[in-house]
Design brief:
de novo design (two linked rop proteins)
C-alpha cells in the first residue's frame, strides 16, 4: 500500500514537471514568434526607406546630411535586431528621430508633398508603423506571459534549472512612435 502511495506521488510530480515544462516551452516559442513578427515589420519599413530617400532627394538635393543620417540610422537599426529587444529599441529611437528629419524636409517642399510616389511611400510607412505597433504589443504580451510563468511558484523551481530566462520588453519612447505624418485622405 505504501509503495502505491509513493508511486502515485512520484507520478503526480513527474506529470506536474512535464506540464510546467511544456507550458514554459509554449510560452518561449510564442515570444520567439512574436519577436520574429517585429523583425519582419521592421525590415519592411527599412526596405521602404531607400525609396523614400530617393524620392525626397529629387526635390531636396542639398539635404545630404539628412539622407546620410537616415541611412546610417537604418543600418544601425537593422544590425541591432540581432542583439535583442533592448538594443533594437535604442536603435529604433535613433532611427525614428532621423526619419522625422525626412518628413521635416518634405514640409519645406510643397511639390514633394504633392508627389504621388511620396504620398504612396508615406501611406506604406503609416501602414507599416501600425503593424509594428501591433507586433510590439503582441511581443510584449508574450514576454509578459513568459516572465509570469517563470516567476510563479512552482514554475520558478523548474524554470531556472532548465535554462528558461525572462525576456526584455521591446519599448520605444512613446513620443517616438508617431514618426510618419498622416497622409491626406488616410484614416486611422
Amino acid at each position: 500500500m505504501t509503495t502505491w502511495i509513493i508511486l502515485g506521488v512520484l507520478a503526480v510530480l513527474v506529470i506536474g514537471i512535464i506540464l510546467i515544462y511544456n507550458g514554459l516551452v509554449q510560452a518561449k516559442v510564442r515570444v520567439d514568434e512574436a519577436w520574429s513578427d517585429i523583425t519582419v515589420q521592421l525590415k519592411r519599413r527599412y526596405d521602404l526607406i531607400p525609396n523614400l530617400i530617393e524620392t525626397v532627394k529629387g526635390y531636396a538635393k542639398h539635404e545630404k546630411t539628412v539622407f546620410q543620417d537616415v541611412t546610417e540610422a537604418r543600418s544601425n537599426a537593422l544590425n541591432a535586431q540581432e542583439k535583442g529587444p533592448q538594443e533594437a529599441a535604442r536603435a529604433e529611437n535613433v532611427f525614428q528621430e532621423a526619419l522625422k528629419s525626412i518628413f521635416a524636409v518634405a514640409e519645406d517642399y510643397p511639390d514633394l508633398k504633392a508627389d504621388q510616389n511620396f504620398k504612396h511611400l508615406q501611406e506604406e510607412l503609416v501602414d507599416t508603423e501600425d503593424k509594428i505597433q501591433a507586433a510590439r504589443r503582441f511581443y510584449n504580451g508574450s514576454a509578459r506571459d513568459l516572465n509570469i510563468k517563470i516567476q510563479t511558484f512552482p514554475n520558478i523551481l523548474i524554470a531556472g534549472p532548465l535554462g528558461f530566462s525572462e525576456r526584455e520588453f521591446f519599448e520605444v519612447d512613446e513620443g517616438e512612435t508617431t514618426t510618419v505624418n498622416k497622409p491626406v485622405g488616410v484614416k486611422f
